[in-house]
Amino acid sequence: MNGDGTSRSLSGAELSTLFPFSFEISRSLKITALGPRWKSFAPAIAVGDDLFKHFAIERPLSCVDAVTICALREEIFLLHVQGKPGFTLRGQVLSLDGGDRILFVGGPWIIHVDDLVVHALGFDDFPPHDPRGDLLVLLQARETTLGDLKLLASRLRETAKRLDDRNKQLEEQIVVRDNLEAQLRQSQKVEAVGRLAGGVAHDFNNILMAIGGYASLASTRLAEGDQVRHWVDQIRAAADRATGLTQQLLAFSRQKVIQPAAIDPALEVQTIERILRPLIGENIHFIVTVNAQLGMVWMDPSSLHQIMMNLVINARDAMPMGGDLRVIVSEAPRENALEAISITEPTQPDREAATATNWITIEVIDSGTGMDERTKANIFDPFFTTKDIGKGSGLGLSTVYGLVQQGGGEIEVESALGKGSRFLVKLPKFVAPSAKKVVVPVAAQSDGERVLLVEDEEMVRKLVEQVLTRAGYVVVSTASPREAINIVASSPRFDLLLSDVVMSGMTGPDMARQIEKLSPGICTIFMSGYTEDPSVRTGRILPTQRYLTKPFQPDTLIAVAGSLLASRK
Amino acid sequence: MYGLVNKAVEGLVRSKFGDDAWEKVRVKAGVPDEPFISMENYDDAVTYDLVGAACSVLNLSPEIVLEEFGKYWVLYTGEAGYGALMQGAGDTLPVFVKNLDAMHTRVKLSYPNLQPPSFRVTNESANAFTLHYHTHRAGLAPFVVGLLKGLASRFNVNMEIAYTRVEGEAPHDSFVIRWEPIS
Ligand code: HEM
Question: pLDDT, tens digit, for every residue of B32-66?
Fold first, then answer.
């Protein structure tokens, strides 16, 4: 219907201009007419052909017969053309003459702009009334946007991955830090307990010393077989047991004083070998070579043990797949012997070590993974470790370093990745003082040597005074280090200084240094069961000094004093 | 199917069962941890795998998951930027249902490779009709049930659905639907 009320139909030519891709079918689904564009676009399609020979109906999905097709004339139709993949016709059907003729009106439906080229289509194929021409531009826009989106998505993915990696790194770092913190807390705890234990042991040792000492003195005054002497001996035995307990406490708190002595490195290394061999594992060939006729070194045996343990266990851990682990103990000449010593120990020129002209060397060589430069540079750093978390604290090699230095020695490392490592520990060979100075400690009577006794614990001071006096020494005693210094200042003629280490006001070693200046050549014996003084704990004990662990037996004191004074002559 | 659908599956799992559940479903289905792009065409297998994984992670039958998904889809598309299109499809249940084909065909404009279903209405009376569901895909009848229930609540009607499978030249699912407005 149009405005003036008369009906009007489109001529075939007008229809062809509006819909160049139109076509008509009969009720039996035969093609009865074709629009003008078909001839050039798909020449194979001819009037009289079956509809489904050339066309497939994509939508509506269920269209299989003429009745359905006519019934769906309000629907959008999508048709595919045989031999034209990617090309779709979109339109609508009109039922004419009561369904005898079915007219398809519509046009090309492009889903990718590139299909324009593929199917040789142009803008002329989209008549002006048909908005599908504009759709091409929208399609292009859609593709561009989708491209941008995918690019953004992939960037996002990369960024997310980078963030993720960084996160993992940070998490790992946090774990390492937490671990270190836990270690620190643990060591602080141990230290606190150690202080407590050490403090208790200190007081305890003084008391035990008084009990054991007086029991000893009493015992010597009583006849053998006397019932009272038996009881007194029981008191002494009980004090000895208590002494064992305090020793355990001190060992736990690691407050035990380092007590260097002349030790045979060959012997010690063999002892350590026996302890370590079972820990090495069967896939590692453990060879220990000790060159005969080595000298001695001046060191606490437990320090040497610790050095060896750390080096050997590290070597083992560097060879998870097995290999050779060699330990070689030998002697090597020492270049610049005196210089080396005077640099490290300028205040102790007469220390035995200074006269050493040879090194005793201990090499620990593995055929393991080796180290890169960075690792090598950091290896003695207290918290540096390459071991997995939980496997090593990182304190091992720094401890080795500290112990070797304390012993007046040096340590060197050679290593390359994949080539294994070689640790060389050099310890100064100990030259024994001339034969007359070597004295076997025996309890001896004094011929009146003068002893200055400094001890702030009255119980202990009284006991030691008695023990020394009974042994023939002339004893001057005081509870105060300051007073001790004054005494020596006014009368420097003392042979022996016998002093506690931890005292109020001034430590034993500090006091001893001053007294030694006032009275050169004076011998010193420190007595303590526990000390916080690092100068003593790190083992800087001169040849004119001895260290006595409280509690000690009266006989021991006399023997040590005797041998020390004898070595001075 | 297009990313839009997979996104809706994700939305359903997240909103009903939480983010952790979605993470499990995603991993189980072997889908990478990336947002779905609505307009990208994914293999149908992705959607089927997601539904399968959801069944096993949430310990639900496929029927229940698909039906839930159907209900959710009506809500979701209504909210995911297609509200106007949905409204344009009709303001009564029968009109809307009859417009589903045209709606999906139009949606093909932005989803060119869309393979939408076809819905035919027959035997229409005042409060009943038969809905014929034609599809390229298998096993989605429970999804349509969910969709219909979703539409029932969208149009505020009570609905009864009777399902039959129709074999023959054009095999499809058919649903006899009785409905009445909730007074
Ligand atoms: C504006 C709203 C809607 C949009 C944008 C939409 C879009 C889609 C999309 C993208 C698909 C996936 C097909 C493919 O990727 O190949 C789909 C499938 C489907 N849609 Fe819709 N849809 C809408 C509304 C509806 C409604 C209201 C129904 C309800 C009856 C429905 C019924 C279906 C069904 C049953 C399928 C499954 C596909 C199949 O059977 O092959 N859709 N739709």
Answer: 988 898 888 999 999 999 999 999 999 999 999 99
Q: Which residues contact A50 (CB under 8 A, 6 or more apart)?
A: A29, A30, A31
Q: Where are the alpha helices (DSSP H) in A222-347?
A: 227-252, 265-280, 301-317, 337-344
Q: How many residues does chain B have?
A: 183
Domain covering B68-181, topology:
H-NOX domain (3.90.1520)
Phi and psi for A349 in degrees, rounded to 5?
-65, -25
Q: What is the CATH number of domain A258-430?
A: 3.30.565.10
Indicate whether this complex's ipTM tops 0.85.
no
**Run of H or E residues at A109:** strand A101-109
Cβ density class B142-170: b for 16+ within 10 Å, e for less: bbbbbbbbbbbeebebebeeebeeeeeeb
Residues of chain A within CATH 3.30.450.260 domain(s) are: 12-128
Cα–Cα distance, A241 to A254 (Å, whole number): 20
Given A64, A146, A157, which is nearest B169 (Cβ)?
A64
For the CA of B119, the closest atom of ligand 1 is 30
- Ligand 1 close to Cβ of residue B48 (< 6 A): no
Query: Model's pTM, two decimal places?
Result: 0.49
Distance from CA of A61 to the nearest CA of B (A): 6
Longest distance between any two alpha carbons in chain A, whole Å:
157
Is the CB of B147 inside a 6 Å radius of any atom of ligand 1? yes
- Which chain A residues contact residue B37 at CB under 8 A? 146, 149-150, 153
